[in-house]
């Protein structure tokens, strides 16, 4: 009969994932499975401790502070999530390798603090998820843009129908009047249908529990504003994006938070006249991130400032092209921001524009615990 030690050996050595035991006390790898040589080829596991400083130096610069934070929380027994990080290629090529690390803390009988776990190559999975998130955000942005693009012509048709109704009124022709009424109602119902569909997408997305992950928020906001820029000729507005750094990371639910941004941009489009300007800014500060969405539109009347974030707020009003509103959007935005442990507020002056501010917590930079190796 096989011994427990033999069973454990066969299990670990035959697996495609890398198993490891690392001593935080001595800063040495005590064990690594054979899969290490496949994952980091042409590395040899007997040389791992000698190669460890070089391996750690390949951690993507944007992930270094995040890894340091995970390491410190792991040593305190406070890390609950898997670690996902990027490793730069050893040959200097542009392709990065995504690693998924599951680790836990153990105390050995000799008093050593051990970190034990598994490492997997998750590059294909991460690329798939990034594409899904990218196209999901583009879908939501496109829906918002289409709702304005399609609602605009229908509103124009309604105005033309009203004009025709005035001109043919003296004819007193019931059949013509009935046809005009049908056209008017069809335009109105079409606009409502478009807006209801977009609003329903937003409301359904907010009813699901948050799934927070580390996201390059600068890249995601840039993608959103680029989609609006591509349609700015049709929307009749100018769009801009400003960021203090090339990459800014935040722990957010990607889809829900981008719905917040899309909803704020949609409102800005509704209440900004043609030729107006709408911008997003992202600023990384020591203890928080600040996102602003600003426009130079018609602004929010002062009497509505205190009730804007209420459910079914009395501040709801149709857009400049007659776009409908449920009064739920700002309440849902407020809820999602608070679920992210952030806060939202705004400044607005009638006929001068509106700026919304969103603050999110940011992790403080940490000294790399492996920096002195």
Structure description:
The protein has 373 residues and is α+β, with helices and mostly antiparallel strands. Helix 5 runs parallel beside helix 7 and helix 9 packs antiparallel against helix 10. It is elongated.
Brief descriptors of the model:
five-stranded mixed sheet, Beta-Lactamase, 44% helix, Heat Shock Protein 90, 373 residues, five-stranded antiparallel sheet, 2 domains, alpha+beta
The neighbouring-strand order within the major sheet is 2-1-5-4-3
Number of helices: 10
H/E element order: HEEHHHEEEHHEHHEEHEEHEE
Number of structural domains: 2
Under CATH at level 1, the class of the largest domain stands as: Alpha Beta
């Amino acid at each position: 009969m096989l011994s427990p030690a033999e069973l454990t050996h066969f299990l670990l050595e035959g697996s495609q994932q890398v198993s490891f035991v690392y001593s935080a006390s001595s800063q040495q790898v005590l064990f690594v499975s054979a899969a290490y040589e496949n994952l980091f080829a042409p590395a040899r596991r007997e040389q791992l401790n000698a190669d460890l400083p070089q391996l750690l130096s390949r951690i993507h610069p944007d992930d270094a502070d995040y890894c340091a934070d995970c390491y410190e929380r792991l040593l305190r027994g406070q890390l609950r999530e898997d670690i996902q990080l990027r490793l730069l290629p050893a040959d200097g090529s542009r392709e990065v390798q995504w690693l998924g690390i599951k680790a836990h803390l153990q105390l050995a009988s000799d008093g050593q603090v051990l970190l034990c776990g598994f490492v997997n190559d998750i590059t294909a999975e991460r690329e798939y998820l990034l594409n899904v998130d990218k196209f999901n955000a583009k879908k939501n942005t496109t829906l918002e843009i289409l709702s304005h693009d399609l609602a605009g012509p229908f509103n124009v048709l309604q105005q033309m129908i009203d004009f025709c109704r005035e001109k043919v009124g003296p004819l007193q022709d019931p059949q013509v009047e009935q046809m005009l009424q049908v056209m008017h109602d069809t335009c109105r119902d079409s606009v409502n249908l478009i807006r209801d569909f977009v609003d329903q997408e937003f409301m359904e997305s907010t009813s699901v529990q948050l799934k927070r992950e580390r996201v390059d928020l600068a890249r995601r906001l840039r993608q959103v504003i680029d989609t609006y820029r591509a349609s700015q000729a049709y929307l009749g507005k100018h769009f801009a994006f400003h960021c203090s750094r090339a990459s800014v990371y935040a722990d957010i639910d990607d889809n829900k938070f981008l719905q917040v941004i899309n909803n704020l941009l949609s409102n800005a489009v509704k209440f900004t006249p043609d030729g107006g300007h709408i911008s997003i800014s992202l600023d990384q500060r020591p203890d928080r991130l600040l996102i602003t969405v600003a426009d130079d539109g018609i602004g929010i009347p002062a009497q509505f400032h205190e009730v804007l974030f209420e459910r079914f707020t009395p501040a709801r009003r149709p857009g400049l092209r007659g776009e409908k509103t449920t009064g739920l959007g700002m309440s849902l935005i407020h809820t999602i921001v608070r679920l992210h442990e952030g806060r939202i507020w705004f400044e607005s002056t009638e006929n001068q524009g509106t700026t919304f501010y969103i603050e999110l917590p940011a992790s403080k930079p940490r000294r790399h615990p492996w920096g002195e190796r």
